Amino acid sequence: MTPSWTRLPDLASRAAGGTVAWANDELFAERENLITRAEPGYRPATFGHKGQVYDGWETRRRREPGDDSAIVRLGLPGVIRGVVVDTAFFKGNYPPAATVEATRAPGHPSPDELTGWEVVVPRSPLEGDRKHHFDVAVEKRFTHVRLTIHPDGGVARLRVYGSPVPDPDLLVPEAVDLAALENGASVTGCSNTFYSDPANLIAPGPAAVMGEGWETARRRDDGNDWVELALAAPGAVRLAELDTSHFKGNAPGWASVRVRDERTGGDWVDLLPRTRLQPDTRHRFRVTGPEATHARLDIYPDGGMARLRLVGALTPSGLETITQRFRVLTR
């Protein structure tokens, strides 16, 4: 059974800003493949100058003692809940075992400046051509992970699932995207996930293609589709951006945004009333609304949206919530 933590964001994904900062060897296949968002693929009898082409990271056969390693800088620093080491299509050349360590470092250190590595996945056996799921129970905020394979071989993908934890020193309390995944917002409910994950709506950066947004199945009834979010922290939204980029024949016709304050048990309040949308367009609206902890996007009747941004001001208690969580997880 697939663990529930695989529904959390992949903190290491290239789509979230992650990068493979270093590897001691990548002779057969490049290290960058480890964090590619797409599932690995394979074309048999596809040979390059170094042999069969693999969609993964593959090192040479060792003829001396030692192990191979790769360091990934997380695009979304946070608490790691689980790790997937995927050896898809590596059948006679997978590593027999792997270890995963993690560390945290302020700023933008080079790989050789990283210290304080902690084991989050102890040395564990691997099999070829399968996904290996490992629970992680370390309640700390990490910025980097190191995958070590024993002794060599190929890994298709490394997924690092968890909860993003922002650094409060990098937030401007008067102008924060309260719906941003990187600031700690999360999806709490959704009417339809047929084509893609609604968490894409609040991912970092613009969507490069339609598949990086949220798209629902075609409705054949009188209802409409929706997504509900827990905001990063309590705040008041002042600017809403509804981005239908790349959705041309399947953008929603209309959309609305409502907010509520769970602390007081309040009802949903209109932030942006039902408004007509255009295909393939970034729509930006000045809005005025009350303090809130949650938001709800309704699209009419169905379709796809690339991104949702809700920029506003943190309340004093909201800033304290983010600051306190950061302090606890970086002790």
UniProtKB/TrEMBL annotation:
Pfam families linked to this entry: Allantoicase
Example GO BP: allantoin catabolic process
The protein's annotated pathway: Nitrogen metabolism; (S)-allantoin degradation; (S)-ureidoglycolate from allantoate (aminidohydrolase route): step 1/1
Keyword Transcription: no
Any one GO molecular-function label of the UniProt entry: allantoicase activity
EC number assigned by the record: 3.5.3.4
Enzyme class: hydrolase
Catalytic activity: allantoate + H2O = (S)-ureidoglycolate + urea
The UniProt record lists the keyword Hydrolase: yes
Coiled-coil segments: none
Keyword vocabulary terms for this entry: Hydrolase, Purine metabolism
Residues of the signal peptide: none
Database matches in InterPro entries: Allantoicase, Allantoicase_dom, Galactose-bd-like_sf
Domain Allantoicase: from-to ranges: 17-164, 184-313
NCBIfam families on file: allantoicase
UniProt xrefs under HAMAP family: Allantoicase
Family of the protein in this entry: Belongs to the allantoicase family.
Name of the protein in its database record: Probable allantoicase
Native source species: Saccharothrix espanaensis (strain ATCC 51144 / DSM 44229 / JCM 9112 / NBRC 15066 / NRRL 15764)
Classification lineage: Bacteria, Bacillati, Actinomycetota, Actinomycetes, Pseudonocardiales
